[in-house]
Amino acid sequence: AFTRCSGYLFEEGLATEGDLPTAYDIPGIARVYGRRPLLVLRRSLQIGTSFGRWFALRYLDSLNDRADDMFEIRAAQLRRILLELGPVCFLFQCVLVHVLVHV
């Protein structure tokens, strides 16, 4: 699912394997993607619209008093979104699990 939705990050000759950072190195990542502002914009829009749509639906559920009824459906949708967005959302997944466990 990740490569279907986000494979463009590594395709289309945007970077050779040597250009991509091999470690979690913020300055290195900034150098690679600082030269690709349209790619960063595209990815930001993808992440924003995916989460924005989910939060909007969750908000509408709460307005219609259906939040409890729709919880499992929205959880499955969120899981699918996180899977499609890939590793960039791993930290968000960890935070979300922590919050849901302690609610």
Describe the protein's topology:
Blueprint: H1 2-6, H2 26-34, H3 37-63, H4 67-85, H5 90-101
In short:
The protein has 103 residues and is mostly helical. It has one domain (2-101). The protein is built from 5 helices and no strands.
Tell me what the structure shows.
- The structure is a single chain.
- By secondary structure, the chain is mainly alpha-helical.
- It has one domain.
- 70% of the residues lie in helices and 0% in strands.
- α3 packs antiparallel against α4.
- It is elongated, with a radius of gyration of 17 Å.
- The protein starts with a helix and ends with a helix.
- 4% of the residues are buried.
- The mean pLDDT is 77.
Main sheet characteristics: none
Low-confidence stretches: none
Distance between the termini: 29 Å
What level of helicity do the residues show? 55-70%
Q: Please write the string of helix (H) and strand (E) elements.
A: HHHHH
Tally the beta strands: 0
Question: What value does the average pLDDT take?
Answer: 77
Structural class: mainly alpha
